[in-house]
User: What shape does this take?
Amino acid sequence: MNKSISRELAFKLLYSMEIQQEYGQEQIDLFIENNEIEDKKIIQYIKSTINGILENKKEIQKQIEENLKEKWDIGRISKIDFVLLQIAIYEIQYKKLPYKIAINEAVELAKMYGEDSSKSFVNGMLATIVKKNGENNEV
Assistant: This one.
């Protein structure tokens, strides 16, 4: 199983949920079915990541808000960047994925799906959060 592919699928699902403002198990199951995902490891990754983010959404969102520049509010962040931040923060803090991997993966997805400034924004926000939280889970 390629974690990058699994992460990209989780990103697409969470983005869709954010746009629709619907966050149920039904959306997860529909996404898996509609995308004809049959690999059990990919399905497990998607479900555990999305459910983990939803369970910890308030804490993850609080970290994003606390690390925004002055006079910025969370509504100003593009949905793509917001979703990428959520996934990376969840993977670093709850899945204990080495932060260098999580940040690199988020930046790569930002290059593919975000605006020109997305990769710099996502990288900077995650670096600030990691530094502030003293994450030491090196590769």
Q: What stands out?
A: The chain has a mean pLDDT of 92.
